[in-house]
Amino acid sequence: MSRVYNFSAGPAVLPEEVLQQAADEMLDYQGSGMSVMEMSHRSKVYDSIIKTAEADLRELMNIPDNYKVLFLQGGASQQFAMIPMNLMKNKKAAYIVTGQWAKKAFQEAQIYGEAVKVASSEDETFSYIPDCSDLDIPEDADYVYICENNTIYGTKYRTLPNAKGHILVADVSSCFLSEPVDVSKYGIIYGGVQKNIGPAGVVIVIIREDLITEDTLPGTPTMLKYKTHADAESLYNTPPAYGIYICGKVFQWIKNMGGLEVMKQRNEEKAKILYDFLDESKMFQGTVRKEDRSLMNVPFVTGDKDLDAKFVKEAEAAGFVNLKGHRTVGGMRASIYNAMPREGVEKLVAFMKKFEEEN
Ligand code: PMP
Fold it and tell me: Which UniProt keywords apply (predicted)?
């Protein structure tokens, strides 16, 4: 068996220990005589899997009792619609547009009401996070929406926007469980799990209980009401059962590593290795304003398209895969999620140094 260093933005690298455990349990999950894939989601065995997953997530993120944890489907993209359908009582919401995913959420919200763009960094290819300390947020906005870590552009909010008393809704798909967060500052904090937590197909929504109501926009389908899933504890219909099981294993892996403080420290150390090199390199440059750099997604360029392509090709041959940047930024992007070992980043930097010497 040979595993590569996988720098994919998502679906992405998962902890090897988790994959090994899942392999060991594939045919017979803990004496049940079947795979978790084959099991009823209403069985006792599965009930314990989903309940343990939720309890571990609550412990890791220190989720207050007045928040529900929902395991849903439809990708993070489905939340772009579910959020306005459930929260837009005044048919108005404020959006901060810091990348493609925030923009998609903003555009989707326009279907349901008035989505107001209160800040944007599109003028400079989303390479920074705008100053959000004193935004002009409409009084009657139902919520303020952000994408906290911008997967494509490699930016991250260092401080949350001043939402001026409005409900804050955050997409944390690409920074989920990468560092501690204060859940109580958000009305909704959500993300697809396929970057830092598990296989594609699961979306985790952490939502303050008072935001879960019957009072949704007219025509909201049953499956798109938070209340449906909250009342049924994520078992209204068949959930993405196997994916949730893997998420649960990743929660345990993070707990065993020491929790989110330790994750943060590890992630800061890993990112520093790469950013320090980018800052001193004569060939490679980071594309993001320094103070807004993400710990998870690191875009960089040489400034020469042909050289970028050569680098990506040679890196792949050397076992560093999925380094090609998003088409809107060009160049390269190294996604270094929780499960990317420090050694992977060190070896990548060594490879970059050698490439720089040779080219
Ligand atoms: N938000 C962010 C920050 C993302 O990175 C992505 C996917 N890469 C999405 C939303 C969309 O997620 P999905 O494909 O699960 O709909």
Answer: Aminotransferase, Transferase
Model-level pTM greater than 0.80?
yes
Q: What is the model's pLDDT at position 355?
A: 98
Instruction: Enumerate helices (H) and strands (E) in the chain, giving the number of each.
Output: 9, 14
Measured CA to CA, the distance from residue 268 to residue 265 in angstroms comes to 5
Check pocket membership of 101 for ligand 1, CB cut-off 6 A. yes
DSSP readout, 278-320?
HHH-SS-EE-S-GGGB-SSEEEEE-S-HHHHHHHHHHHHHTTE
Question: Is 195 tagged catalytic?
Answer: yes
Which tens digit of pLDDT belongs to each residue from 151-183?
999 999 999 999 999 999 999 999 999 999 999
Residues 199 and 276 occupy one common structural domain:
no
pLDDT at 329: 87
Provide the domain count of the chain: 2
Cβ–ligand 1 distance for 32 under 6 Å, the answer no
* Residue nearest ligand 1's atom 12 by CA: 76
CB 298 within 8 A of CB 320: no
Same domain, 175 and 97: yes
Domain of residue 281, residue span: 5-15+259-358
Segment 314-334, tens digit of pLDDT: 999 999 999 999 988 899 999
Q: Do residue 119 and residue 200 come from a single domain?
A: yes
Which of 257, 278, 303 represents a domain boundary (last residue)?
A: 257
149 pLDDT tier (thresholds 50, 70, 90): very high
Task: Based on the residue annotation, tell me whether 171 is a catalytic residue of this protein.
Answer: yes
Please pick, among 56, 92, 142, 171, the residue that the annotation labels catalytic: 171
What are 191's two structure tokens? 């993300």
What is the mean predicted confidence (pLDDT) over 82-111?
98
The rounded distance, in Å, linking the Cα atoms of 216 and 84 is 9
CB 309 within 8 A of CB 234: no
- Using alpha carbons, list the distances in angstroms from residue 134 to 99, 138, 163, 182: 20, 12, 9, 21
- The one-character DSSP state at 65 is T
Can you tell me the mean pLDDT for 104-131? 98
101: annotated active-site residue? yes
pLDDT tens-digit map of 24-67? 999 999 999 999 999 999 999 999 999 999 999 999 999 999 99
